[in-house]
Amino acid sequence: MEFPSKLIENAVGELARLPGIGRKTALRLALHLLKAEMDTTASLAEALAKMRFEITYCRTCHSISDAEECGICANKLRDHSLVCVVSDVRDVIAIENTGQYKGVYHVLGGVISPIEGVGPSDLHIDSLVARAAEEESEVREVILAISPTMEGDTTAFYLSRRLRDLPHVHISTIARGIPMGGELEYADEITLGRSIVDRLRQK
């Protein structure tokens, strides 16, 4: 693809690095930004820079946050006895969009995958166990809401073994309204919501 400007070529190259963005789409975006008001392009650049450099992670659940504690963990109206364990922040967003879950979350930051070199120590598993096991813990149920893939099932099995010796904590999994091999973020809101409501107790 030939470009009339090296600056456009560089912009297209950077935009095309984004997932799901090919070079043709990247070119359309670059040309749109070129035609837009200067303030529009500047605002976009500023928002992206602030997102990258200022966003932090919640000290409790490891979800993305603007402060040390995210809005969900800080919300006293949420049910803090109910912890939904997910692999990724996108899963938190998907479940929140159902409007059917009122507990809190714990974001692992991935799933166990030996092929990709991801082991239990690479995930936020120890902090989950500590959170549930501490003497004054409010946690009474842990919902394993992990995508039902081979890696997801391996992770859920490992978590069940780590948590099973805590007598005050029930372990449940979301109902299999989510198809095997499916990803939570792509499930429709009704199916995902019902999976949370109809979760299965494991202990």
From TrEMBL:
InterPro entries referenced in this protein's UniProt entry, alphabetically: DNA_Rcmb_RecR, Rcmb_RecR, Rcmb_RecR_Znf, TOPRIM_dom, TOPRIM_RecR
Keyword tags: DNA damage, DNA recombination, DNA repair, Metal-binding, Zinc, Zinc-finger
Domain of life (superkingdom): Bacteria
CDD domains tied to this protein: TOPRIM_recR
Ranges annotated as C4-type zinc finger: 58-73
Gene3D superfamilies: 3.40.1360.10, 6.10.250.240, RecR Domain 1 (1.10.8.420)
Keyword Cell cycle recorded: no
Coiled-coil ranges (or none): none
Domain Toprim, residue spans: 81-179
A molecular function GO annotation: DNA binding
Cross-referenced SMART domains: TOPRIM
A GO biological-process term: DNA recombination
PANTHER family membership: RECOMBINATION PROTEIN RECR (PTHR30446:SF0)
Entry similarity comment: Belongs to the RecR family.
UniProt function note: May play a role in DNA repair. It seems to be involved in an RecBC-independent recombinational process of DNA repair. It may act with RecF and RecO.
Stated name of the protein: Recombination protein RecR
